[in-house]
## 1
Amino acid sequence: MKKIQIKTVKGFNEILPPESFRWRLVEDKFRNLLEGYGFAELRLALLEPTELFARSIGGETDIVEKEMYTFLDRSDRSLTLRPEGTASVVRAYNQYSLGKISEINKLYYIGPMFRYERPQKGRYRQFNQLGAEVFGEASFYQDAETLVMLAQFFHALSLKGVDLHLNSLGCEACRPAFRDHLKSYLDERKEALCGDCQRRMAENPLRALDCKNPQCREAVTDAPLISDALCDGCRQHFEGLCGLLEVAGVDYQVNPKLVRGLDYYTRTTFEFLAGDLGAQNAVAAGGRYDRLVEELGGKATPAFGFAIGFERLMMLVDSEVTPLTSPFAALIPLGEEALRLLFPIHVELNCRAAVTTLSFQQKSLKSQLKKADKEGVMYALIVGPDELLSGEAICRNMRTKEQSKLSLNRLGEALRELYHEC
Ligand code: ATP
Ligand code: MG
């Protein structure tokens, strides 16, 4: 037989036990919190028509230019593995007319995203996001409610050193003039900018403001700031939001150079940054996008949303929250008849969440006890020919080494009682 070893595609992150238990605890907290705020879950397609992302995220963004997993299917349609959730949620909002169901729609999602990036700590090609979107509410109260909710989530997970950075990107009324102003500033310093920023200057000069390239950073030190160019509506929106965050006791820093890599944002944009994460320090990000629903063929609808990077979040969550994963009891049969007697008890207990182990192979008492010890069980329950004759099983407490007898007639019940005691 020719053996081959097949491994995952490079950078596709998988979650194994016991880490997967920790993930589920955090996921449950997220669901409970969001459902408390009136959000409902969407479980959407992983594969979308490429056009959805090219249109919504923007042709001049990192994601669309170089990070998407795009391919032709068997009928030559261009499809893309979703690189983020918002575009799909908006697509679904329009496709299923979710706006007709209720005026305000609060939707959340949890699941994998795919981006062709260089794999490194905190950056993968398949990674997971916890995200949410609110449709139909233009008020800055909505921005504040969502940001306070995120801060509550991080607080509930006891995260420390996570800072909220906030900016306003203006709207159709004030951004175009600012963009032109910034463009002429950048034109004068064109030579100092990196290739990406030079190329994007015509379409999206704002991106130069938060480019990580040291030379670009230097070039934009004295660049005009959008905060000085906001129209009255955008300024009131931003000030209103800041005021509500203060009342709620959520700390934030205004960062007028925060732009974010996606084209669809209007007004509020934000990032939660964690010092402990090193270079990949954004744990969550999002903002307002009042034009996107309409751009993707729906009725004009204001919207606000965010996405949390699940892998990065888990790097910040204390690893002590791992739940106890040891089984409660090892059922130890010595011989075929004992195995036959224990099997129905084993499946009955497992069905009631009392995890037991049962070896289906005929192993010696010594080796089964050794295994039980390794598994860290509370009890070992031994049934061999002698016990079958006497009608009583031996129940060994693995911590205290005390042994007692349990009647074979009511073994299931007795084990259930023990399980509830521990
Ligand atoms: P970054 O600046 O780190 O590239 P981004 O701006 O591309 O982040 P978003 O598109 O806003 O990220 O996605 C929201 C969150 O998803 C990020 O804040 C981050 O926590 C997480 N994230 C983004 N890309 C990756 C990736 N390749 N691997 C793991 N997590 C990621
Ligand atoms: Mg990115």
## 2
Amino acid sequence: MNPDSSSAAGTFEQVFGAPPQGVWAAPGRVNLIGEHTDYNAGFVMPLALPHATVAAVSRRDDGVLALASDGMPGGPAELRTDTLAPGVRPDWTAYPAGVVWALREAGHTVGGACVSVTSTVPAGAGLSSSAALEVATALALNDLYALGLTREELATLCRRAENAYVGVPSGIMDQMASACCTAGHVLHLDTRDLIRRQVPFDLAAAGLRLLVIDTRVTHDLADGGYAERRAACTEAAAALGAGSLREIPHEGLADALGRLPDARLRRAARHVVTENRRVERVVELLDAGRPRDIGPVLDAGHVSLRDDFRVSCPELDLATGAARAAGALGARMTGGGFGGSALALVEAASAETVGRAVTGAFAAAGYRTPRVFEAVASAGARRLDAGVPG
Ligand code: GLA
């Protein structure tokens, strides 16, 4: 699960015939609370997973970007950096290519690179495997080309790669989480101005665990559901004369709902405004040393995503319901929804019981066996080897 620098370097050497100049890793994430708030200038609270994408990279200045991954047949894909254009690469290479495109669009000199990637972040599970790939690539190029960009700037460019090059209309949460999370903390991020704070999150010390339940129902954010929700939020904000739903205070919610013309916009606004409030509540509880008490807030978040925002699905509802019935303190879907993963906060002593109960419930319902694992707040993106860039 933990990134392995030497095997990534070994794969690179097999493909490119020389050792890489360096090896970088960027993690996937799970979001504790604050869902569908990041494109509403609101609050999010992700933590980095131990699962990461590792990129072994060397600089080259002949204008070629050569991309390889383990298990990719037929050798590396070779692209010319000066002809990269949005929307033309239908596979994983769109992410690193998009990062090079975004860096060059922003005026940075990136002549080319050899890149070989391996990843332990489950793809399509709502755990930000794409952001991990983008951020690992961006961090490597930042070092190798001595671009001097901050993590915030790198995350912003990675989001641009995802939005404008790959064509997925995501917010900034995933890239910021991968770039800026730190071990032992959950990242309290204000997506309006990227102001952030690392909130201590040592569940083990409190006798607790956070379980991730990957339903193995693949979600695809490029599908219409995500964009539709975004559009409803934009319409609701406009109908309220606000720049974003972030501007609607929780105390003003009833009044705002009364001014919205239809149920669809009312539901969208209610989710976003109450979700921002839930993030603040979770921060207060964690700061007060009361991690057990966030359970009901997580439950309320799930209800809001299921009933108001309507981005859950039967597998996510079953995962959270079975976890709660088996003693979880709280459980909710996490990430964009329509599949992907749920999380459950459990007493350490009941982690196995909860995992078994969820797996049993999936078997009884005839669903695919879910993947259940513990999320320990891990390090954000970093260079793994000690080498000095050439
Ligand atoms: C996906 C997007 C994020 C965010 C979440 C929902 O993960 O990539 O930007 O919008 O959905 O919170």
